[in-house]
Design goal:
This protein has one domain: AhpD-like, CATH 1.20.1290.10. About 60% of the residues lie in helices and about 0% in strands. It has seven helices and no strands. It is elongated.
């Protein structure tokens, strides 16, 4: 989950891809593939994405990935699997992706996952709680790192 999220954020922010769901002055470093210009195998992936995210255009980061159809297909399969309902539901996974994006200070990721958690039903109070938890633990870990504190438990201990 975190790996997929950080991977997408790194590409999107690094290439200055436009924020998908809000106006932005970001200008991409590379030209993005337009859905109308996509080969059939890419169009099929784009159609699946648009249904998955309930949008009328594939997210910009995937439009960049579409420059290599095999890479796009594989990464989309990994993304779809990571966000599939299993022990954790889709909303919970989007909340985790939002938290990872907030921590990474990814404009693209925050925009993307904020839209998703809202679309999937997270209330304003729920969003406030997510941000409070992220803020709390980012603060605690930064303090612990600055003080060079050792973990309070042995991760190799059993029972």
């Amino acid at each position: 989950m975190a790996g997929v999220t950080h991977g997408l954020n790194a590409v999107a922010d690094g290439l200055r891809l436009p924020l998908d769901f809000s106006p932005s002055a970001r200008t991409p470093v590379l030209v993005l593939l337009e859905p109308a210009d996509a080969p059939l195998q890419v169009k099929a992936v784009f159609d699946e994405m648009m249904a998955f995210y309930a949008v009328d255009r594939p997210p910009a980061v995937f439009r960049w990935m579409a420059r290599d159809a095999g890479f796009l297909q594989d990464y989309w399969a990994a993304t779809r699997e990571a966000f599939r309902d299993r022990k954790l539901d889709r909303l919970t996974k989007e909340v985790l992706a939002l938290a990872a994006s907030l921590t990474a200070k990814s404009d693209y990721g925050v925009d993307f996952h904020l839209r998703e958690v809202r679309r999937l039903g997270l209330s304003d109070q729920g969003l406030t709680e997510v941000i409070e938890v992220v803020q709390c633990f980012n603060t605690v870990t930064k303090i612990a790192d600055a003080l060079q504190l050792q973990p309070d438990f042995d991760p190799h201990a059993t029972g």
